[in-house]
Description:
The structure holds 3 protein chains of 3 kinds.
Chain A: E1 5-10, H1 15-18, H2 21-27, E2 37-41, H3 47-60, E3 64-69, E4 85-90, H4 92-96, H5 104-122, E5 140-143, H6 147-158, E6 163-166, H7 174-178, H8 195-203, E7 208-211, E8 214-220, E9 226-232, E10 235-241, E11 243-246, E12 250-252, E13 269-271, H9 272-281, E14 295-299, H10 317-331, E15 336-341, H11 351-359, E16 363-375, E17 378-385, E18 390-397, E19 399-402, E20 406-408, E21 417-421, E22 427-431, E23 478-480, H12 490-512, E24 528-529, H13 539-543, E25 549-551, E26 557-559, H14 569-573, E27 579-580, H15 586-594, E28 608-613, H16 617-626, E29 635-640, H17 648-656, E30 661-666, H18 680-689, H19 691-697, E31 705-709, H20 718-732
Parallel strand pairs in A: 1-2, 1-3, 3-4, 5-6, 5-11, 6-7, 11-23, 13-19, 14-15, 14-19, 15-16, 28-29, 28-30, 30-31
Antiparallel strand pairs in A: 8-9, 9-10, 12-20, 16-17, 17-18, 21-22, 24-27, 25-26
Helix pairs in contact in A: 2-5, 5-15, 6-8, 6-12, 9-10, 10-11, 15-17
Chain B: E1 2-6, H1 9-13, H2 17-29, E2 32-35, H3 48-51, H4 54-70, E3 76-78, H5 81-96, H6 98-108, E4 121-123, H7 124-132, H8 134-140, E5 149-152, H9 173-180, E6 184-186, H10 199-202, H11 204-220, E7 225-228, H12 231-238, H13 241-248, E8 256-258, H14 259-266, H15 285-291
Parallel strand pairs in B: 1-2, 1-3, 3-4, 5-6, 5-7, 7-8
Helix pairs in contact in B: 2-14, 4-5, 4-6, 5-6, 7-8, 7-9, 11-13
Chain C: H1 12-20, H2 35-39, H3 50-59, H4 62-67, H5 79-83, H6 90-103, H7 110-126, H8 131-139, H9 144-153, H10 155-163, H11 184-197
Helix pairs in contact in C: 7-8, 8-9
Amino acid sequence: MDKKLGVYVCKGCGIGDAINVEALSEAIEGLDVTPHLFKDVPVLCSKEGVDTIKADIEGEGINAVVVAACSPRVLYDVFDFPGCLLERVNLREGVTWCQPPGEEDTQMMANDYLRLGITKISKSELPEPFKPEEEISKRIMVVGGGMAGLTAALEGAKAGYEVVLVEKEAELGGWKAKFYKEFSAPYNDIHDLSVTSLIQQVQGHDKIKVYTASEIDKTAGGPGLYSVDIKSNGGSAQEKIGAIVMATGWKPYDPSNLEHLGYGKFKNVVTNIQMEEMAKAGKIVRPSDGGPVKKVGFIQCAGSRDPERLPYCSAVCCLATMKQATYLKQMDADSQAYVVYKDIRTPMQTEDLYRKVQRDGAVFIRGEVESVSEQGGSLVIEAMDVLLNDKVRLEELDLVVLATGMVPTSMPAEIPKKEMPAEGGGTELREVAPDSGFFSTPALRLQYRQGPEIPTLKYGFPDSHFVCFPYETRRTGIYAAGVAHRPMDSTQAKSDAAGAMLKAIQVVEATAVGAAVHPRSGDMTYPDFFMQRCTQCKRCTEECPFGAINEDEKGNPLPNPTRCRRCGVCMGACPERIISFKNYSVGMIGSMIKSIHIPEEDEEKPRAVVLVCENDAYPALDMAGLQKLRYSPFVRVIPMRCLGGLNLVWIADALSRGVDGILLLGCRHGDDYQCHFIKGSELATTRLSKVAETLNRLALESERVKVEEVSIADAHRIPEILNEFMETLEGIGPNPYKGW
Amino acid sequence: MTKYFLYSGCSLETSASNYLISVESVFKALGVELREIEDWNCCGASISYIGANHLSQVVLNARNLALAEAQGGYDIVAPCSSCYIVMNQVNRELGEDPALMQKVNSILAEGNLTYKGSVKVRHVLDVLYNDVGVETIKSRVKKPLKGVKVGGYVGCQTVRPYGEYDSVERPVVMDRLIEALGAESVNFSHKIKCCGSGIFLTELDYGYELAGNILESATSKGAKVMTTACPLCQLNLEAYQERVNKALKKSYNVPVTFITQLMAVAFGLDPSKDACLDRNIIPVEKALKTAA
Amino acid sequence: MAQKASSKYDPTFAKEVFEKVDSGEEIKKCMQCGVCAASCPLADKMEFSPRKIFTMIRAGERQKVLASKDIMLCTSCYTCIVRCPRKVPVMEVMHGLAHHALRSGFVPRKESSKFGKAFWDCIYKTGRVDEGVAARNYYLADGLVAGAKRGLEMKDIALNMLKHKRMNIMSAIPGIQGKKIKNIATLQKMLDKAEAMGKGGSK
């Protein structure tokens, strides 16, 4: 593309007072590209300002626009020029608002940022959206026909999308349909099952195609392009699918681990699921002799919140007990319920049901169960009552109900093993990790290089980034809903399902125009592979957080662009640097670093390159500016899509040019990671750990390169982090390669 | 002229006579007419539960409410916090529970009385602040209490339990009234902590501790005079102050007034006849004069 | 050593409380959060906080609850009522329990019950409370000599009050009654009826 560059500098919001625009225009002399136009405008975001740019695009043929004004995170709808390359240079939050006005160092900072911006645009090309040969499908498959699946299907159909619903059992309705009564709003009583009418609506909807007693045999392709083989009753079918809602639900926690509460030892100790079955069958009786049930002990957190068993709270067992105590009383007014609990968790309006059960006369005992035993054919619970600070004994119980929790169906009964490289060479069979894609119970059977199922968090629930992206899994276009996603009750499952379906709709619509879904929503670029130089090292296929890249038998990468989230982790992974985007590449960032002006050693103006994650750290920097927090004028910020795109060549380039240090600001990694691309910041840290040796070899101090974790709420920490790094660099002294 | 029933209650008849007289003087000065409910009986206070059941207390108060309703139905203003809270609570219960109202009326029939639920029960602070108003009070001030640091001790029952005219946890009405008199209102942590109430009669040590905490909290924040709107609060903080000092090895010597006494002084009324300062055990005059 | 279980959560006493104690059924709403205990000005003087009393009721500890001094250690400050997130009128329940205990032959707090009875006696006999009479009768509850002795202990307070015209000297004289209200006879009829028709009453 032949670029005709227009540079527009805004003088509003204090920029004009802090920075000398004349000097700015001089500072960009000598760069690879010379602007065709350089203009300063009093208020660039005003109608006059925007019209100036538009007129130049029309009249002067400007096709590359540099807007040197506020942060790219604001006014993106104002500075929008279709068909033009656009680069935003952050002179407001990034310079004017965090540096003293009119100072030499402030000016030098602005000069460098404009140089960076112009260099970047000179290395950019307009993206062409990915258009596969095959037609994009906007049909959405819902896996699982329980409360969440049925709701998702119905919501999708109501929004006008064709839905394919696949249920492995012969009947729709999941667990819910097997239960007696439900708790739902209004919570002052229990209600008839609402799932019955939901099933009817789904079955009667002409946009929903229902497969029952069916399983998924194979899921190939990617968003917009899935080809799903469905196996049912000997027959099989193939469906073209655009996105998937995974509502595969839950199974009860295995009660065989609850022998300490009498399960398996005494017939009259049952789980809450067995209680439902009895109620559904019409009569609650003592399983031992069919006798009447008058006194019932409910044991809450049976196995739950127990590090040895099910460590988490399932958030529904308390309410299930409230429901059961309610129908127990309704079936027999003389019955008496005792509830032994750690905490009763009935959030929001559901507390009304707790109140009702209290009014009905149930006795709540806060404490730990010490034993369940049998005495004269009845059961006895002994517990430590923490409020009485005394041991209590509940006698003559006809039934003990264990309130067991929920486990996602994706959680395998036994952890699968896989051939993996052994330490001393060769291979060995080892247990796979939850986030490997090989951990789960078969459900989707994906044809993905990184495993057939959705990677999960440690308890087996698939998730990617709970805080910022609810519903998302680590596979683009596949969204988890209901208890497959996290423990929840059916009311929550319904809203969760609607949310997941909306995400599914979003991905098919974005894919149809070649755009990414968030966090880079709307991005039209995707990675290009310069295959001639590929060495089949498989690093890109292994490190892609979304499993977007498959490989052929020889180990050549086979990208699936519709699965791509455009994070650039593959770009950082490739040792041959053959992966790049139209407006983001190793060479581009390298050139940008080179365009930073490095003052002579005797000027005592050190320089640090700060590579910043654009998802959390960059907004935090913006907010630091917004709060007018001051920080060192010697840092030069370069945003990255994700720190996972870090290529070590930048470090080498920067240091050899005389940059005194390199600081990386990215998201927290580890168990409670905050990285929007799952492992990006972790990968960057791993890669950097290898740099230290190189630095030492070059007689450079390893402290010159550092990673810091920054969250979006960390604006107040920004000055401290940047200033401390600059102090460290000052302590070490200038880079000896300066001026070479 | 605005009319109210003044329900003086038993304490104001004797131990808080300075409260009663100052209330009457201040309301007169403000142009508010107060009437007595003819043949009123005791509200039962907060300890009737020992001698009687709850319904008995409801009946005691319903009788007064019925009398008030029959004698003109004006709002009842109760200077005693205990009278106020008990009567107000019963009135509320009756209003919310028609079955209780019916039962109570069947009992009131013994005296040919019936209660429909039309009467309102108000605290003296409520009437001063919301009906009379701070501006009117300010305009009536002749001798502003300039420079006097007053610890407005609200106590517990004065604003509870329903927070009808002031916040139950952070009341401001007392402070605004103190400021309207030209004095400086001192903020202190024990503003709404219990003074011990009737515990002084049966568990003296506990009473000393509770009252001592309040005196400490107010004086440590600079209060030179304290003021209350409850007979028992005043009694416990003032009449027992010397005993509190002995028990806790302290030397508090802070006058404790009723808000209406301060008001009478600021209005320029007679210090003994109207404000009844001479009925306070710990002398007040000096604390008020030093400042002026 | 394994501790022996001392409570069996016998519901009989809880039922008694629900049916016979004023506001007794309100404790069903308690969720054991402890805000009442944290708010009570006398909590640190108690063996059993209100929260614990409620648990003990549900656990069936009749003897312990009705004999507990703590159900009568109440200044009626209403703080527990104001703060209870479940709107349990904690103070009312305590009053109800105390009344029920006294009626059932327990004397949780001797002094408080003597004073309370003297107070109520005034109301019942005259319709109003003459503070002096109530206090005198309270002191005299244990006989003339003990009463005089206890009265003397409070001499400083009494003299101060007398001196400042806040006490009636006549009230101190044994046998003297306060002034009766006009319709004391019908009031007494009303109170008799209320006692009979109230919770736990004869009707």
